[in-house]
Write a structure and sequence with these properties.
It comes from Eubacterium ramulus ATCC 29099. InterPro entries: AAA_14 (IPR041682), DUF4143 (IPR025420), P-loop_NTPase (IPR027417). It holds the Pfam family AAA_14. This is ATP-binding protein. This protein has 417 residues and is of the alpha/beta class. It has two domains: 136 residues, P-loop containing nucleotide triphosphate hydrolases (Rossmann fold), CATH 3.40.50; 272 residues, no CATH class. Helix content is 41%, strand content 22%. The chain contains 16 helices and 13 strands. The strands form two sheets. An eight-stranded mixed β-sheet has the order 7-6-8-9-10-11-13-12. Strands 2-3-4-1-5 form a five-stranded parallel β-sheet, covered by helices on one side. β12 and β13 form a beta hairpin. The longest helix has 23 residues. The radius of gyration is 23 Å and the shape is globular.
Length: 417
């Protein structure tokens, strides 16, 4: 099965021959190698590049074990270049080679080679990797399958696809399995033996139990404001473990650097400033999150919120969680301050959107809860509620847009309605 990744392929196309190293990053098993060696190579060949001008090296293969030596790899690349025409280097699993930064920097000095690299451990995936190439690294961030990509390759109708995606997420390999047990075991296995192992080894962590428990707490709390102090208190009260705020903060950063989770800052909409406390954390793939909790906590609202957050990142938006304060008189006539939550404050250039995510909007109480946040925002940017189901977008009498999850996910310009 060939899963199309057209948006990422387009990013590689527009960066072709730009004189920089194209660095394909993202959580492990999200499809980086397939994008490079199958989809992008096919594009190069169709564009008229000769096959012998495409140099492919997969450093995790036993056949290329010798090329893990940096000097031998560099010489191999030089020997493959027989003329002055443009060559394209596709270098996979580059972390298998020591001193790979030096090799790549040396390649930058060769005028007729265009370099594309991927890596699959947390050392390479560290979010500061681009700085290793002295300002000449061009990063392309790859995510697990969006729902639109997943649905395009899924053998079934929307309802079945949505239920499957909510439970097992969008890692491409999961789509290849036909048996639910295989999907669950695959996700649980790679979480422990790939993602956690990478984080532990890269950061030389000695107490694996601590970060294991931290991941469980974060998985249980997607969509809920939290901070290292709260987590530390949870460790003390429920497990009798002293786990300092600083250590927790460091461990969360390690998980973010490995792209396993994302951190959403809280933004005071009226005050126009960021609030340091009580951030929200989301998993890069909801299937991994569910597997971590052994598929026990299946709260549809929180899972939907995580999926919407990931979709907004995939579309290139900057996403924060919002708060808005309002003052009103209580029954005793006293002025009180109330704080309303806005699920997402979404920015791209000069454009902004406010988004609420709701599983069900049928009750008057639920509508009041979602709309009150919007009513207290003192600007005219578009305000959208994404609800579960297939409802087409419509505007209520206050100008708020309500749209079903199906429309939001399957229309790339859905926020423009």
């Amino acid at each position: 099965m060939e899963i199309k990744r057209d948006a990422y392929l387009e990013q590689l196309k527009i960066r072709k021959d730009n004189g920089m190293i194209k660095i394909i990053t993202g959580i492990r098993r999200c499809g980086k190698s397939f994008l490079l060696f199958v989809l992008f190579k096919k594009y190069l060949l169709e564009s008229g590049v000769d096959n012998d001008h495409i140099i492919e090296i997969a450093l995790d293969g036993i056949e290329n074990e010798e090329l893990r030596d940096p000097k031998k790899c560099y010489q191999h690349i030089k020997d493959a270049m027989k003329d002055d025409q443009k060559y394209y280097l596709l270098l996979d699993e580059v972390q298998f080679m020591s001193r790979f930064e030096e090799v790549l920097n040396s390649l930058l000095r060769i005028s007729n080679i265009d370099v594309y690299v991927t890596g699959s451990n947390s050392k390479f995936l560290s979010s500061d990797i681009v700085t290793e190439f002295r300002g000449r690294g061009d990063e392309i961030r790859i995510y697990p399958l969006s729902f639109a990509e997943f649905y395009a390759a899924f053998d079934g109708d929307y309802d079945d696809a949505w239920e499957e995606y909510m439970i097992y997420g969008g890692l491409p390999q999961v789509l290849q399995f036909s048996v639910e047990r295989q999907k669950a075991e695959y996700l649980k296995n790679i979480f422990t033996n790939v993602y956690i192992k990478d984080v532990v080894e890269r950061n030389k962590l000695r107490n694996v139990d601590e970060i294991d428990t931290l991941v469980d707490i974060l998985a249980s709390a997607i969509g809920a404001p939290t901070n290292p102090t709260k987590i530390s208190n949870t460790f003390k009260s429920e497990r009798g473990i002293n786990y300092s705020n600083k250590t927790i903060s460091n461990h969360i950063d390690y998980l973010v650097e490995a792209f396993l989770i994302s951190k959403a800052d809280r933004y005071d909409i009226k005050g126009r400033k960021y609030v340091g406390a009580n951030l929200k954390y989301y998993f890069s793939d909801v299937g991994l999150r569910n597997a971590r909790l052994n598929f026990r906590q299946q709260e549809p609202t929180h899972i939907m919120e995580n999926i919407v957050y990931n979709e907004l990142l995939i579309r290139g938006y900057n996403v924060d969680v919002g708060i808005v304060e309002a003052y009103a008189k209580n029954d005793e006539g006293k002025t009180t301050r109330k704080q309303f939550e806005v699920d997402f404050v979404v920015n791209q250039g000069s454009q902004r959107y406010y988004i609420q995510v709701a599983y069900d909007m049928t009750s008057e109480e639920k509508q009041k809860q979602e709309f009150n946040s919007f009513r207290n925002i003192p600007d005219s940017f578009k305000k959208i509620v994404v609800v579960n189901g297939t409802k087409k977008p419509w505007r209520n009498e206050e100008g708020f847009v309500i749209m079903g999850m199906k429309y939001f996910l399957l229309n790339a310009d859905s926020l423009e309605f």
